[in-house]
Design a protein that fits this description.
Helix content of chain B: under 10%
Distance between the termini of chain A: 41 Å
Radius of gyration of chain A: 14 Å
Largest interface: A-B, 24 and 24 residues
Order of helices and strands of chain A: EEEEEEEEEEE
Number of strands of chain B: 11
Strand content of chain B: over 45%
Oligomer: heterodimer
Structural class of chain A: mainly beta
Amino acid sequence: GEDVEQSLFLSVREGDSSVINCTYTDSSSTYLYWYKQEPGAGLQLLTYIFSNMDMKQDQRLTVLLNKKDKHLSLRIADTQTGDSAIYFCAESIRSGGYNKLIFGAGTRLAVHP
Amino acid sequence: DVKVTQSSRYLVKRTGEKVFLECVQDMDHENMFWYRQDPGLGLRLIYFSYDVKMKEKGDIPEGYSVSREKKERFSLILESASTNQTSMYLCASSAPGRYEQYFGPGTRLTVT
Protein backbone atom coordinates (compact mmCIF):
# COMPACT_ATOMS: atom_id res chain seq x y z
CA GLY A 1 0.00 0.00 0.00
CA GLU A 2 0.94 3.63 -0.06
CA ASP A 3 3.13 4.97 2.71
CA VAL A 4 5.10 8.15 3.26
CA GLU A 5 7.80 8.29 5.93
CA GLN A 6 9.55 11.26 7.53
CA SER A 7 11.69 11.73 10.58
CA LEU A 8 9.72 13.43 13.34
CA PHE A 9 12.12 16.12 14.56
CA LEU A 10 14.87 18.36 13.25
CA SER A 11 16.70 21.09 15.16
CA VAL A 12 18.87 23.67 13.40
CA ARG A 13 20.64 26.91 14.23
CA GLU A 14 19.35 30.14 12.79
CA GLY A 15 21.17 30.94 9.54
CA ASP A 16 22.07 27.32 8.80
CA SER A 17 20.46 25.20 6.10
CA SER A 18 17.74 22.70 7.01
CA VAL A 19 17.20 19.48 5.11
CA ILE A 20 13.97 17.56 5.65
CA ASN A 21 13.80 14.09 4.13
CA CYS A 22 10.92 11.93 3.00
CA THR A 23 10.51 8.51 1.42
CA TYR A 24 7.41 7.37 -0.43
CA THR A 25 6.28 4.08 -1.92
CA ASP A 26 4.08 4.72 -4.97
CA SER A 27 6.36 4.86 -8.00
CA SER A 28 3.46 6.12 -10.13
CA SER A 29 3.06 9.33 -8.10
CA THR A 30 2.85 12.19 -10.56
CA TYR A 31 3.40 15.01 -8.09
CA LEU A 32 5.07 15.26 -4.70
CA TYR A 33 4.26 18.07 -2.32
CA TRP A 34 5.61 19.90 0.69
CA TYR A 35 3.22 21.57 3.10
CA LYS A 36 4.00 23.76 6.12
CA GLN A 37 1.89 23.92 9.28
CA GLU A 38 2.51 26.71 11.75
CA PRO A 39 1.28 26.31 15.35
CA GLY A 40 -2.50 26.25 15.59
CA ALA A 41 -3.01 26.63 11.85
CA GLY A 42 -3.96 24.54 8.84
CA LEU A 43 -1.57 23.27 6.20
CA GLN A 44 -0.12 25.73 3.71
CA LEU A 45 1.08 24.48 0.32
CA LEU A 46 4.79 25.36 0.11
CA THR A 47 5.95 23.81 -3.12
CA TYR A 48 5.65 20.74 -5.29
CA ILE A 49 7.68 18.87 -7.87
CA PHE A 50 6.58 16.97 -10.94
CA SER A 51 7.85 13.40 -11.04
CA ASN A 52 9.92 13.89 -14.20
CA MET A 53 12.03 16.58 -12.51
CA ASP A 54 15.10 16.09 -10.33
CA MET A 55 15.18 19.49 -8.71
CA LYS A 56 13.06 22.57 -8.23
CA GLN A 57 14.21 25.82 -6.66
CA ASP A 58 11.95 28.53 -5.30
CA GLN A 59 13.77 31.32 -3.45
CA ARG A 60 15.13 29.75 -0.24
CA LEU A 61 13.51 26.39 -0.94
CA THR A 62 15.10 23.60 -2.95
CA VAL A 63 13.30 20.32 -3.61
CA LEU A 64 15.31 17.30 -4.68
CA LEU A 65 13.72 14.15 -6.06
CA ASN A 66 15.44 10.80 -6.44
CA LYS A 67 12.81 8.78 -8.22
CA LYS A 68 14.86 5.58 -8.27
CA ASP A 69 15.11 5.56 -4.46
CA LYS A 70 11.70 7.20 -3.99
CA HIS A 71 13.34 9.87 -1.88
CA LEU A 72 12.28 13.49 -1.63
CA SER A 73 13.98 16.27 0.29
CA LEU A 74 13.27 19.89 1.12
CA ARG A 75 16.21 22.19 1.75
CA ILE A 76 15.62 25.55 3.40
CA ALA A 77 18.54 27.92 3.01
CA ASP A 78 19.36 30.51 5.70
CA THR A 79 16.78 29.09 8.10
CA GLN A 80 14.95 31.69 10.17
CA THR A 81 12.90 31.45 13.38
CA GLY A 82 9.80 31.98 11.25
CA ASP A 83 10.53 28.67 9.55
CA SER A 84 9.80 26.82 12.80
CA ALA A 85 6.81 24.64 11.92
CA ILE A 86 5.77 21.11 11.02
CA TYR A 87 6.59 20.14 7.42
CA PHE A 88 4.55 17.46 5.68
CA CYS A 89 5.56 15.53 2.62
CA ALA A 90 2.73 14.16 0.45
CA GLU A 91 2.57 11.90 -2.57
CA SER A 92 -0.20 12.01 -5.15
CA ILE A 93 -2.07 8.83 -5.94
CA ARG A 94 -4.90 7.84 -8.21
CA SER A 95 -7.15 5.45 -6.31
CA GLY A 96 -10.57 4.18 -7.30
CA GLY A 97 -10.72 6.82 -10.02
CA TYR A 98 -10.04 9.67 -7.58
CA ASN A 99 -7.07 11.96 -7.00
CA LYS A 100 -5.78 11.78 -3.44
CA LEU A 101 -2.78 12.79 -1.38
CA ILE A 102 -1.03 10.51 1.11
CA PHE A 103 0.71 12.47 3.86
CA GLY A 104 3.68 11.65 6.03
CA ALA A 105 3.52 12.10 9.79
CA GLY A 106 5.28 15.48 9.55
CA THR A 107 8.72 16.72 10.61
CA ARG A 108 8.81 19.30 13.37
CA LEU A 109 11.53 21.85 12.60
CA ALA A 110 12.86 23.81 15.56
CA VAL A 111 15.10 26.79 14.81
CA HIS A 112 17.23 28.06 17.67
CA PRO A 113 19.49 31.12 17.96
CA ASP B 1 -6.40 33.01 -3.35
CA VAL B 2 -8.30 29.94 -2.30
CA LYS B 3 -10.06 30.40 0.97
CA VAL B 4 -11.27 27.49 3.06
CA THR B 5 -13.01 28.33 6.32
CA GLN B 6 -14.12 26.12 9.17
CA SER B 7 -16.94 27.00 11.52
CA SER B 8 -15.01 26.76 14.80
CA ARG B 9 -11.36 26.88 15.80
CA TYR B 10 -11.99 25.20 19.16
CA LEU B 11 -14.88 23.03 20.27
CA VAL B 12 -15.57 21.16 23.51
CA LYS B 13 -18.31 18.53 23.53
CA ARG B 14 -19.50 15.83 25.89
CA THR B 15 -19.44 12.10 25.19
CA GLY B 16 -22.57 11.04 23.31
CA GLU B 17 -23.34 14.45 21.84
CA LYS B 18 -23.96 14.90 18.11
CA VAL B 19 -21.30 17.20 16.66
CA PHE B 20 -21.33 19.12 13.39
CA LEU B 21 -18.16 20.52 11.85
CA GLU B 22 -18.70 22.83 8.91
CA CYS B 23 -16.35 23.69 6.08
CA VAL B 24 -16.86 26.25 3.31
CA GLN B 25 -14.65 27.00 0.31
CA ASP B 26 -15.00 29.96 -2.03
CA MET B 27 -13.15 28.75 -5.14
CA ASP B 28 -15.87 26.63 -6.73
CA HIS B 29 -13.79 23.49 -6.10
CA GLU B 30 -15.57 20.23 -6.76
CA ASN B 31 -13.43 18.12 -4.44
CA MET B 32 -13.57 18.41 -0.67
CA PHE B 33 -11.91 16.37 2.07
CA TRP B 34 -12.05 15.83 5.82
CA TYR B 35 -8.94 14.69 7.72
CA ARG B 36 -8.07 14.21 11.33
CA GLN B 37 -4.58 15.02 12.56
CA ASP B 38 -3.02 13.30 15.56
CA PRO B 39 0.57 13.67 16.81
CA GLY B 40 2.91 11.18 15.17
CA LEU B 41 0.18 9.90 12.83
CA GLY B 42 0.02 12.74 10.35
CA LEU B 43 -3.21 13.32 8.44
CA ARG B 44 -5.69 10.52 8.02
CA LEU B 45 -8.52 10.80 5.50
CA ILE B 46 -11.99 10.38 6.97
CA TYR B 47 -14.31 11.11 4.03
CA PHE B 48 -14.16 12.95 0.75
CA SER B 49 -16.61 14.23 -1.82
CA TYR B 50 -16.21 14.82 -5.55
CA ASP B 51 -19.58 16.36 -6.21
CA VAL B 52 -22.72 17.62 -4.53
CA LYS B 53 -24.56 14.85 -2.67
CA MET B 54 -21.72 12.47 -3.37
CA LYS B 55 -19.41 11.00 -0.70
CA GLU B 56 -16.71 8.39 -0.48
CA LYS B 57 -15.18 6.75 2.58
CA GLY B 58 -11.58 7.47 3.35
CA ASP B 59 -9.27 5.41 5.53
CA ILE B 60 -10.98 5.94 8.90
CA PRO B 61 -14.73 6.58 8.35
CA GLU B 62 -16.00 4.69 11.40
CA GLY B 63 -17.93 6.92 13.79
CA TYR B 64 -18.31 9.71 11.23
CA SER B 65 -20.68 10.72 8.48
CA VAL B 66 -20.71 13.63 6.02
CA SER B 67 -23.10 15.81 4.13
CA ARG B 68 -22.64 17.83 0.94
CA GLU B 69 -25.83 19.59 -0.04
CA LYS B 70 -24.12 22.54 -1.76
CA LYS B 71 -20.91 22.65 -3.75
CA GLU B 72 -19.17 25.07 -1.41
CA ARG B 73 -20.05 23.36 1.88
CA PHE B 74 -18.94 20.01 3.29
CA SER B 75 -20.03 18.97 6.78
CA LEU B 76 -18.53 16.33 9.05
CA ILE B 77 -20.89 14.76 11.57
CA LEU B 78 -19.99 12.82 14.68
CA GLU B 79 -23.23 10.97 15.44
CA SER B 80 -22.28 10.20 19.05
CA ALA B 81 -19.00 11.77 20.07
CA SER B 82 -16.49 9.65 21.96
CA THR B 83 -13.27 10.60 23.76
CA ASN B 84 -11.16 8.88 21.09
CA GLN B 85 -12.48 11.43 18.60
CA THR B 86 -10.63 14.20 20.41
CA SER B 87 -8.39 15.52 17.64
CA MET B 88 -7.61 18.30 15.18
CA TYR B 89 -9.97 18.18 12.21
CA LEU B 90 -8.85 19.66 8.91
CA CYS B 91 -10.95 20.36 5.85
CA ALA B 92 -9.43 20.75 2.38
CA SER B 93 -10.57 21.36 -1.19
CA SER B 94 -9.09 20.88 -4.63
CA ALA B 95 -9.98 21.71 -8.21
CA PRO B 96 -11.10 18.97 -10.61
CA GLY B 97 -8.20 17.06 -12.15
CA ARG B 98 -5.73 18.57 -9.68
CA TYR B 99 -3.96 16.89 -6.79
CA GLU B 100 -2.96 19.87 -4.64
CA GLN B 101 -5.31 20.54 -1.78
CA TYR B 102 -5.97 23.78 0.07
CA PHE B 103 -6.65 23.59 3.77
CA GLY B 104 -8.77 25.41 6.29
CA PRO B 105 -7.36 26.51 9.67
CA GLY B 106 -8.60 23.40 11.48
CA THR B 107 -10.98 22.71 14.35
CA ARG B 108 -9.51 21.39 17.57
CA LEU B 109 -12.24 19.20 19.07
CA THR B 110 -12.11 17.98 22.65
CA VAL B 111 -14.62 15.36 23.78
CA THR B 112 -14.93 14.99 27.54
